Amino acid sequence: MLSINKLTLPKNKNISVSFRVWFFAGNEKFLGKGRVELLQKIEKFGSISSAAKDMKMSYRQAWQMISEINEHSELPLVEKKLGGKSGGGATLTDAGKKAISTFKEFEKKVADFIQEESKKIKI
After folding, report:
1. Alpha-carbon gap, residue 98 to 114, rounded angstroms
2. Backbone φ, ψ for residue 13 (5° rounding)
3. What's the mean pLDDT in 63-78?
4. Contact 21, 107 (CB under 8 A)
5. Is 58 left (phi over 0), alpha (psi -120 to 50) or beta?
6. What per-residue confidence (pLDDT) applies to 12?
7. Band (6; pLDDT cuts 50, 70, 90)
8. Separation of first and last alpha carbons in the chain
9. What's the pLDDT tens digit per position in 85-121?
10. Helices (H), the chain
């Protein structure tokens, strides 16, 4: 049981615990909630530009994230398609889909653990 000493809470307030999961490649950020959301939107729209717009971020920022993700991955998670008559775009690779599912599964396990452990907090 976790015991917190010298913590005073206002009356009638519940304690909650929050967290954020990051996967690192060495010391570099690899995947986090925002990057996973970007990957999901690229899969949905087939475009880095459309995904960036939907997330209200610049194309440059989105491309930088994708570049960093691909750089730290053994296999690319996103592949760009060159423009032409039908235009360009981007696709999520099988490795990208696997990265999303692995991240989501891990995040769920951590959330479940924290939820259970936070029930044990006594002040």
Report:
1. 24
2. -110, 135
3. 96
4. yes
5. beta
6. 59
7. low
8. 11
9. 666 799 999 999 999 999 999 999 999 999 998 888 7
10. 33-45, 48-54, 59-72, 94-118
Give the whole-angstrom CA distance, residue 115 versus residue 113.
Answer: 5
The DSSP bridge pattern shows strands 78-81 and 89-92 to be: antiparallel
What is the per-residue pLDDT for 10? 59
Tokens of 29: 């950020």
Q: Distance between CA atoms of 40 and 57, rounded to whole angstroms? A: 15
Which residue shows structure tokens 């936070």? 118
- The dotted CATH code for 23-118 is 1.10.10.10
CB of 79 within 8 A of CB of 96?
A: no
Which residue's structure tokens are 């967290």? Answer: 19
